[in-house]
Amino acid sequence: MKVDYWDRLAAEFSENVFEVTERDVHGVIRKTAKRLGNKRLTAIDFGCGAGASTRAIAPFFKHVLGVDFSEKLLSVAREKTHADNIDYRKADLTKKNPGFARCDVAFCFNVLLSADNRVRHLIAANVVQAVRSGGAAVFIVPSIESELRSYQVALACQTRDGFRRDAAAKETDARARRDVISLSQGVIDLGGAPTKHFFQDEIAELLTDCGLTDIVVSRVRYPWDIVLDDAPDAMPHDQPWDWIAVGKKA
Fold it and tell me: How far apart are CA 121 and CA 128, in angstroms?
């Protein structure tokens, strides 16, 4: 996605863009930041957008730098930020060796979204490069397992509501064919934007290639209403999720 796309979203970013730190059902993101944080350590929030994630992790660090390539989003982030241990800076993660200051912990939430494998690898490598030896990096990426499971849950909801299963399955399959741009590459159409989704072992392999070790991949769960319209309050199914991958820099 180009910078003008994000510039256009800046004015109503929180209303139009899913903020992972605000919908994290079990508080996994804040718990991870607290576990890795220390008032003597610094962190960088790569792809910070309007700064919600930056503000969420800032209480656990001495200083946090939010980085994004949209100046309009950074302006919104600055307006919403009142903590004195947060700064923001414009930078493009898709450029080689962007020259970031080093940090002890890097956070990168739903930034590895490009359908272009080369771009994703370059962004991940830049993030890892910014981490000091002995530090850690935290990535959140969309889960393709969760996306595919959502079609099954949608079908189950329709049949519970009285629709014939074969008719509901036909409609759900048609929607899946429209949404899935490339199953082999994990690219799904989200609101008109081709968006990379990862298998669990796939994100671990990418981060290993970029220099992280001891990678642990777990789930950040969200309410059902982020993927299903008119989702009932009581759902008998586990909630949808993103992958959160945490690794060490040797």
Answer: 11
> Which tokens go with 250?
């040797």
- Domain covering 3-142+198-249 assigned CATH 3.40.50.150 in the classification: yes
pTM metric for this prediction: 0.91
Number of helices followed by number of strands (H, E) in the chain: 10, 10
| Closest residue by Cα to residue 57 from 68, 42, 67 | 42
Question: Contact, 58 vs 33, CB < 8 A?
Answer: no
Side-chain half-sphere CA neighbours of 66 within 13 A: 28
Token representation of residue 237? 């199914």
Q: State pLDDT tens for residues 168-202.
A: 899 999 999 999 999 999 999 998 889 999 999 99
Q: Which of 234, 227, 249, 248 is nearest to 179 (CA)?
A: 227
Domain ranges, ordered by start, for the chain:
3-142+198-249
Other Cβ atoms less than 10 A from the Cβ of 244: the count is 22
The alpha helices in the chain, defined as continuous H runs, are: 3-9, 13-16, 20-23, 28-36, 52-57, 71-80, 117-129, 144-160, 165-179, 200-209
Give the pLDDT confidence of 21-55 residue by residue, as tens digits: 989 999 999 999 999 999 999 999 999 999 999 99
